[in-house]
From TrEMBL:
Upper taxonomic lineage: Bacteria, Bacillati, Actinomycetota, Actinomycetes, Kitasatosporales
Pfam families tied to this protein: GFO_IDH_MocA, GFO_IDH_MocA_C3
Keywords: Oxidoreductase
Domain GFO/IDH/MocA-like oxidoreductase: 147-292
PANTHER family per the UniProt record, alphabetical: BCDNA.GH03377 (PTHR43818)
Record's protein name: Gfo/Idh/MocA family oxidoreductase
Domain Gfo/Idh/MocA-like oxidoreductase N-terminal positions: 12-138
Top-rank taxon, per record: Bacteria
Signal peptide (UniProt feature, chain positions): none
Length: 404
């Protein structure tokens, strides 16, 4: 890191993979000085890499990176790169995450970090050995309404949490002719909806309520074949008519009964083929004294019930306002909506604040490892039909103070 004349710390940013998420990370870094000027950090877009030369050129010519390469190792070897964003397909997360750790580069990586709990644990071990700061793309936990729900639960406003319902229902693969992208292949993505969507649900409820200790799960594949899409030629939103068909190798739907640490129980569901919801990640959390509900499709609203028997029973809808999370950094008054991209700006802020040693509110590789162990237990349960315990992940805190 270097210091500019204005005393803001300049952080050299490297990017690996210039797809939609890579562009989003780049915009988040660029927004940081204006959204969080008090942080005193000024990201500098230094070096981007993508195996597709046109995407690498886009990073340099459009996004504003100083240089571009077609090999991610050039980013890790660049001495001007202080931190790295890893936005490559799932199959590469393990390899690149370990390489970033060995290069001594703090990294912000998208989920799932590995295609399995074992791969994720190996990345976590490499990061611990290198002593590098990590952050994971669990962006939904940063929504101001979610942060407020977490505060209410931690303060005991809901009483003892008894049961939880949480879902991630997305229709991105509801179209039977949606392309057979890498997301549908076991060797490239690992599990399907279980890893891609349920991992977000597991992180969200672990962050807001408590870590999950035990799982009973099932999975199903709704569309068993899809038309082939050449790697790098489109996204999982592409639709191909009359194309060559090939097998879907992982799950479209997953459901789990779970037991949380602390005694609460719950149900979790995820689907990528559902018709209706588009980005329907949300939760209902019930306690002995109250409840809260939230859904990303109405991201700027939190429904709260805290009167068990008095004159104000039922839900109050709380609109986004300056008392909720980081809302005041984005909007001047209640009712003005924040969006998905804003959550990535918050995520970038938490990552770089941790790198700078200012505060540690970021999701970490240890959290990702804990989530991966729950997903692994769910996959084992879907095969065995039995309850499966999630193996412990050393160091996972989900943002809680050590020992809490």
């Amino acid at each position: 890191m270097t210091t500019t004349p204005s005393a803001a710390r300049t952080v050299g940013v490297g990017l690996i993979s210039v797809g939609w998420m890579g562009k989003l990370h780049s915009r988040a870094y660029q927004a940081l000085p204006s959204v969080y000027p008090e942080l005193g950090i000024r990201p500098r877009l230094v070096h981007a890499a993508d195996t597709a030369e046109d995407r690498a050129d886009h990073a340099r010519d459009v996004l504003g990176y100083e240089r571009a390469s077609t090999d991610y190792r050039a980013v890790l070897d660049d001495p001007a790169v202080d931190v790295v964003s890893i936005c490559a397909p799932n199959v590469l997360h393990h390899e690149i995450g370990i390489a970033a750790a060995k290069a001594g580069k703090p990294f912000w990586i998208e989920k799932p970090v590995g295609r399995s709990a074992e791969e994720t644990a190996e990345v976590a071990a490499a990061a611990r050995t290198a002593g590098v700061v990590t952050s994971i793309g669990y962006n939904y936990r940063h929504a101001p309404a979610v942060e407020r729900a977490r505060e209410l639960i931690a303060a005991g406003k809901l009483g003892r949490v008894t049961n939880v319902r949480a879902t991630f229902f997305s229709g991105y693969a509801a179209e039977p002719n949606a392309a057979l992208s890498w997301r549908f292949k076991r060797d490239l993505a690992g599990h399907g909806a279980l890893a891609d969507l349920m991992s977000h649900v597991v992180d969200l409820v672990s962050y807001v309520v408590a870590p999950i200790g035990e799982v009973s799960a099932l999975t199903s594949t709704v569309h068993t074949e899809r038309p082939v899409l050449p790697m790098g030629s489109g996204t999982h939103f592409a639709v191909i008519e009359d194309g060559e068909m090939a097998a879907v190798e992982n799950d479209d739907y997953a459901a789990a009964l779970v037991r949380f640490g602390g005694g609460a129980v719950g149900t979790l569901e995820a689907s990528r083929t559902i018709v209706g919801p588009q980005c329907g990640i949300g939760f209902e959390i019930y306690g002995t004294d109250g409840s809260v509900t939230w859904n990303f499709e109405r991201m700027n609203e939190l429904r709260v019930a805290l009167d068990r028997s008095g004159p104000h029973q039922g839900y109050t809808t709380v609109l986004g306002n300056s008392h909720l999370g980081d809302y005041a950094h984005f909007q001047p008054g209640p009712g003005n909506s924040m969006g998905y991209d804003d959550l990535k700006v918050i995520e970038a802020k938490k990552f770089l604040a941790a790198v700078a040693g200012i505060e540690h509110r970021n999701s970490t590789i240890e959290d990702a490892h804990a989530v991966a162990e729950v997903i692994s237990a769910a996959a084992a349960s879907a095969t065995s039909g039995a309850w499966e315990k999630a193996a412990p992940a050393p160091g996972a805190t989900f943002g809680r103070p050590a020992g809490s």
